[in-house]
Amino acid sequence: MSEQFEPIIIGFTCNWCSYRAADMAGTARIKYAPNVRLIRLMCSGRLDPTFILKAFADGADGVLVSGCHPGDCHYVEQNYKTMRRFYLLRKLLTQMGIEPERIKLLWASAAEGQIFADEITKFTEEVRRLGPLNWNPEQGIPKESQPANPMEVSA
Amino acid sequence: MAKERIGVYVCHCGTNIAGTVDVEDVSRWAGEVLKDRGVVISRDYKFMCSSLGQELIQKDIKEQGLTRVVVAACSPHLHEATFRNACKIAGLNPYLSELVSIREQDSWVHTDKAVATEKAKAIISGGVERTIWQTPLDPLKVPINPTTMVVGGGIAGIQAALEIADGGFPVVMVEREPSIGGHMAQFDKTFPTLDCSACILTPKMVQVGSHPNIQLLTYAEVTNVSGYVGSFQVTVKQRARSVNVEDCTGCGICQEKCPKKVIDEVFEAGLGYRKAVYTPFPQAVPKYPVIDRENCTYYIKGTCKACEKFCPTGAINFEQEDEYLTFDVGQIILATGWDLFDARRIPQYGYGRLANVFSNLEFERLSNAAGPTGGKIVMRDGITVPKTVGIVHCVGSRDKNYNNYCSAICCMQSLKFAHLVHERTGAEVYNFYIDMRTVSKGYDEFYQRLLDEGTHFIRGKVAEITDAAREPGEEGKLIIQVENTLVGKQMRIPVDMVILSSGLEPRHDTKEVAHLFGISCSADGWLLERHPKLDPVATMTEGIFIAGCLQGPKDIPTSVAQGAAAAARVVGKIQQKEISMEPIKASINQDKCSGCRICNNLCPFNAISFIEDRMVSEVNPALCQGCGTCVAACPAGAISGTVFSDQAILAQIDGLLLKNVKPLELVAG
Amino acid sequence: MKYHYYPGCSLEKNAASYNISTLAIAKPLGMEFVEVDDWNCCGATEYISLNLTAAYALVARNLALASKNTESNQIVAPCSACYLNLRKCDSYMTESTDLADKVNTALAAGGLSYKGGTLKVRHLLDVIVNDIGYDAIAAKVTKPLKGLRIAPYYGCMIVRPIFSGGSSFDDTEYPKTLDKLLKTLGAEVIDFPLKAHCCGGHMTQISEATGYELIRQLVKGATDYKADLMVTLCPMCQLNLDAFQGPMNMYFNTNYKMPVLYFTQMIGLALGIGAAELGIGSELVDARPALSKIGVEVPEPEPIKVRTPKEALPMPSLPEEK
């Protein structure tokens, strides 16, 4: 790996538009930055702000939120709810000292593989410029308030 | 929870994955590093989706007692069903398998092998963590009520109703107007064959009216819809006809004797009259008239009752009241049609200001043998036959000021008009078009025929239609100002009569209809289909189908095809007797629910209801589509979603960021 | 309401009666105009075709001057060309940082600057129908223009498509606010199909054939519709239709006599203001026969005094002058 800082980004996609945009980018062999790891949800409306906080707490340097274009939501209008939460959460993150540029909202239809890929590359560069997040969960949040480790629960 | 036994399978996909990802290394890594997480076996194989690959998994499930399966291969949209099915055959609940994509999201989009390999490991680690939290699920089965409701009695609705009824299943048809028939009943001829519209439509209308499997409600509207696929409850408001249909014979004496004449804005498009008691047209189905209470002298002044006096069977009933009827139906087909673009919105075209500017629907009535002039094409004075006629295409369509879309029928309709004007008046006809679109069977041949008939075609968007004469010869005429873009010249064409081919628009109340039935509109306002190419008659709401122009402008053959297609879908479902649904659902833990009702309004499918006596909310699993928005919103964390539970996603985040393996690395290091 | 007032050059000279009548009705209608201090020409239609940056710097100077006074964020222009130029300039400076930078560099030389979007540019008609409103005007009408047939003429400038996504105050193809306003004043308003057609602008100076033909169409149209007079809202339109009606008649050998007045003069008459206070009488096509229909008396125009220098030599007397 190169010497430059390689950020790790967690990306949330919806099942109907943006995940299919990622598939589309793949099928078309469009190359983009390898820093994003995607999680598929049914709808961007499923995105609990906790997920984003958890990703940052776990060491992600950036979080991408993506869904269908406004008006195209498979579930009628749930992406509007995502939008509302997104801006609120960004404000909250700012108050916690996290640069608002570390989260990005991206609308991509199933046909927009190129846009999806380009935006990921762009976002990766932006996060790279910001540098590592340096979030220390052990000091920042008491351990008990962190999400339970599945193996501990099962033990 | 006992420790899971997880199997990881890494696919080469030939060289599609193996070319960029070191699959052996990934497989080895998963087997060693994720061992602590429950991975008991990790393999790589050339083609996991092949029958040999599937057998590999099945063998391990049986021999190794796997409780979870993670396949790292292509996109779940391609092969999720394949691997779920393979697990099911081997006796593992299909929802305990996870397919993670290391092809579309990794090998195909990256070039650096080391980086792609690392990413593949992270993706698999995320999949492993997530699958630990999955629970066994079974597809939901709901029984289906064989009755279908068809809303809208135009040609699309008629076709759908007849197909289902002929198939032996009951249909309830609801129509807002006093008669079925829709816009097609207003036309004289249909393009390109010039069939008489009434001759081909009325037999179908009669069939609907007399079919033993069809219950026809006209002068009625749907007011409420609840329930879900298989068992909808629909409330229909039957407006008072003021006529007892059991007694009425449809003799028409009431209409003859009624002294009140009203301009018929609906069927005659404002170009003719009807009485206050009326059937829209002689072949109306049903044959029973209605009394228009807003215009009836008796309802206005309290006296008259001419219809009652002359009715031979005593069928007039002034005291009749609106009734609300409830129907249980399994599926619904919407076919509510279109409205005409109001050309008054383009004031420079003069519709409504200049007497001899006609709309296309007005002209349909003018040229109709049963219309107000008996089919004579005359100017607004009712006598003069025009010597020159201009027909303007694309009025309100393909125009960013009004509607961006092409209304699909106007070119052919305008050609039909040109032909009818030629045939009946011998007038010179000028067609003003932007592009000529004659795409279906026999359409372009019709265009060629019109060219031979001597119609003038001028390519250009009309700038204005005015009665302000500039040159001698223009006095008393309507002057059409247009740029002929083929010769690059401005032209002024004086004509006697102008016909505006106004476009089609969504019904003015489409938004309310969409809301009522829980479906959505596209940006243009037409109802949204599930897939524009592959599923044009289904909607995002299970059990609700659309047919005809409410989905977008279309001609009669396409509307008929859609009506039949929707019917086929409905009948197919009915014959299955029950419907299975993906078990991706939300559910509310009643002990945790505080009854705050935040989730109630978030659901676009009305799946969440509030139970007043227990002060908690509840999800109806048959209505829930599984988007998960309520799960994310619940402040008490009382709502959980299957397949996409909080724990599963949080665990996947851990996995993707390799938080799950860090302690191991530390130990190892 | 308080507005910055940008009269523009024509209102000082050929359209002085537009200025006089505008100021005369401002008070009764409750409009307070603060004239932009030290305003300059908007460049009319010509300068923009020669040098875009310089032309917009010229326009922007007025916006910059007006925006110094923050009592109002609205600037009103009675002239349609001024209105269009101000609005275009404001809009383009909002859209293009490149243009805005260049213009502001020029303005900086005079210690000025302007940021696009600071002021809202309004036409006088827009302010009167939308801010004052038809109802408020109707309530103030004391002498309705009953019996007067008017052809409302908007010209082509105020109806041009909108800029910067803002909304136009009237239909861009077939406007109707002036129609409704004149009806409010009690006049009989004809549905004038040529209401938004071009008057020719400066074509009379470039090509007589074209310029006079455009004027002929408009005057003929209004005459065919049996209008008593035409009412306009643009100094250029008024000039063309009024001052060039005579030359046009000579050119085509016709004899049209269609008076052309400003809408502000009609408002003034309906509010009961005297004709002289509204500048009526300065038009070249006599409006007295038309206005006599509603009992408005227009004072005899004062004979034009020709000032003769002291050194001037006497004129020879003509035979018929005794």
Commentary on this structure:
The complex is a heterotrimer of chains A (155), B (669) and C (322). Chain A has 155 residues and is α/β, with parallel strands linked by helices. Chain A has six helices and four strands; from the N terminus they run βαβαβαβααα. Chain A has helices at 18-27, 49-57, 78-95, 113-130, 137-140, 150-154; strands at 9-14, 36-41, 62-67, 103-107. The longest helix of chain A is centred in the middle third of the chain and has 18 residues, at 78-95. Chain A is globular, with a radius of gyration of 16 Å. The model of chain A is unreliable at 141-155 (pLDDT under 50). Chain B has 669 residues and is α/β, with parallel strands linked by helices. Chain B is built from 18 helices and 34 strands. In chain B, the strands form twelve sheets. In chain B, strands 10-7-6-18-29 form a five-stranded parallel sheet, covered by helices on one side. The model of chain B is unreliable at 663-669 (pLDDT under 50). Chain C is an alpha/beta fold. Chain C has helices spanning 16-29, 47-50, 52-68, 80-95, 97-108, 124-132, 134-140, 177-184, 203-206, 208-224, 235-243, 245-252, 263-270, 288-292, and strands spanning 2-5, 32-35, 74-77, 120-123, 149-152, 188-189, 229-232, 260-262. Chain C has a four-stranded parallel sheet, with helices on both faces. A four-stranded parallel sheet of chain C has the order 6-5-7-8, with helices on both faces. In chain C, α8 (177-184) links the parallel β5 (149-152) and β6. In chain C, α6 crosses α7 (134-140) and α10 (208-224) packs across α12. Chain C is globular, with a radius of gyration of 21 Å. The model of chain C has no long low-confidence stretch (mean pLDDT 92). Classes of the chains: A alpha/beta (155), B alpha/beta (669), C alpha/beta (322). At the A-B interface, α1, β2, α2, α3 and α6 of A face α4, α5, α16 and α17 of B.
Question: Strands, helices and their partners?
Answer:
The complex is a heterotrimer of chains A (155), B (669) and C (322).
Chain A (H helix, E strand, L loop, with lengths): L8 E6 L3 H10 L8 E6 L7 H9 L4 E6 L10 H18 L7 E5 L5 H18 L6 H4 L9 H5 L1
Parallel strand pairs in A: 1-2, 1-3, 3-4
Helix pairs in contact in A: 1-4
Chain B lengths: L5 E6 L11 H11 L5 E7 L5 H14 L3 E6 L2 H14 L7 E5 L1 H5 L5 H20 L7 E4 L4 E4 L3 H12 L4 E4 L14 E2 L4 E2 H14 L3 E4 L2 E9 L2 E8 L14 H5 L3 E4 L7 E4 L1 E2 L11 E2 L5 H5 L4 H5 L12 E7 L1 E4 L3 E3 L16 E3 H7 L21 E8 L14 H16 L2 E6 L9 H11 L2 E4 L2 E5 L11 E7 L4 E7 L1 E6 L1 E3 L3 H8 L26 E3 L9 H21 L1 E4 L4 E3 L19 E4 L4 E4 L9 H5 L5 E3 L4 H11 L5 H7 L1
Parallel strand pairs in B: 1-2, 1-3, 3-4, 6-7, 6-18, 7-10, 18-29, 20-27, 21-22, 21-27, 22-23
Antiparallel strand pairs in B: 5-30, 8-9, 11-12, 12-17, 13-14, 15-16, 19-28, 24-25, 25-26, 31-34, 32-33
Chain C lengths: L1 E4 L10 H14 L2 E4 L11 H4 L1 H17 L5 E4 L2 H16 L1 H12 L11 E4 H9 L1 H7 L8 E4 L24 H8 L3 E2 L13 H4 L1 H17 L4 E4 L2 H9 L1 H8 L7 E3 H8 L17 H5 L30
Parallel strand pairs in C: 1-2, 1-3, 3-4, 5-6, 5-7, 7-8
